[in-house]
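Weekly puzzle thread! Below is a chain. First person to post its structure in token form gets bragging rights.
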Amino acid sequence: MNKVFDLIDEKITNLAKARSLLSTLPEIEFPTSKNPIAIILGRRGGLKGGPARAIKLTQQRRSEIASNAAKKRWEKAKSEKVTKA
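Winning reply:
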């Protein structure tokens, strides 16, 4: 039962961190050529998505994602090097 409470406590802590991060974002200057309401709605979803996803992912899964990304970058760098030669 303690594991459940520990997991809930960890999730609540992560949520609090994400909320504090969102509150520190700077004010946005809107270009006049776009609809400001559409910008706000799109930005609101975009700003919430990353921190929300990070909270849901386990440390192991985040590590897997980072490892896969690094492998892809190295593969891309190697293929570009071969085509240049």
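Puzzle host: Confirmed. Bonus trivia for everyone else. The CA atoms of residues 29 and 65 lie 33 Å apart.
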